[in-house]
Design goal:
heterodimer, A: about 120 residues, mainly beta, 7-stranded mixed beta sheet, 4-stranded antiparallel beta sheet, B: about 110 residues, 5-stranded mixed beta sheet, about 0% helix
Chain lengths: ~120, ~110
């Protein structure tokens, strides 16, 4: 297990299409996070899971966005009816949410371009 | 707000010089973390300092934390061109919870 994996690395889609991204966290990490980052900005929190439970969703996560983490392992983030404003880097991170403090491990991200 | 705010927004130094960047936050924290992001890549965890610690070292990195001022600093000594990246701080209120990033400090190290 070499880290957090995200797939695909790049996605170009036409406006109005649906897209789905996948994140595979470090296997022993029980918390998984999704962030979105646009050029020149810091990552913005979208949502996070503890095991399979989605514990919090940001107001940024409109009803066109849905995230799942079936069985508490990998997670998917789906964007329906994509808009040009959805173009961004989507980052996934994971950590252990108990015991002493741990850093968060990020994946390399999925860059979405909506044309 | 739980967001960390980094200062300065941009910093340009010569290779071999030290780089200092600062972070301010507004809430009580459990720990504060620093991350580096190379252009177009994910974030890499650099160092974590707990709320009961005042200073921590890791290689060429030195982090300080002043909880009374709600501020932290990251010092990179003897900088290298490979240190060119954006640096973000993340104040963590509760272990394992989400955190909120600022816009980061963009560091350029000139060879």
């Amino acid at each position: 297990d070499t880290g957090v994996s995200q797939d695909p690395r790049h996605k170009i889609t036409k406006r109005g299409q649906n897209v789905t991204f996948r994140c595979d966290p470090i296997s022993e990490h029980n918390r998984l996070y999704w962030y979105r980052q646009t050029l020149g900005q810091g990552p913005e929190f979208l949502t996070y899971f503890q095991n399979e439970a989605q514990l919090e969703k940001s107001r940024l996560l409109s009803d066109r966005f849905s995230a799942e983490r079936p069985k508490g392992s990998f997670s998917t983030l789906e964007i329906q009816r994509t808009e040009q404003g959805d173009s961004a880097m989507y980052l996934c991170a994971s950590t252990v949410a108990q015991g002493d403090s741990y850093g968060y491990t990020f994946g390399s991200g999925t860059r979405l371009t909506v044309v | 707000s739980q967001q960390g705010e980094e200062d300065p927004q941009a910093l340009s130094i010569q290779e071999g010089e030290n780089a200092t960047m600062n972070c301010s936050y507004k809430t009580s924290i459990n720990n504060l973390q620093w991350y580096r992001q190379n252009s177009g890549r994910g974030l890499v965890h650099l160092i974590l300092i707990r709320s009961n610690e005042r200073e921590k070292h890791s290689g060429r990195l030195r982090v300080t934390l002043d909880t009374s001022k709600k501020s932290s600093s990251l010092l990179i000594t003897a900088s290298r061109a490979a240190d060119t990246a954006s640096y973000f701080c993340a104040p963590v209120v509760n272990t394992g919870n989400q955190f909120y990033f600022g816009t980061g400090t963009s560091l350029t190290v000139i060879p």
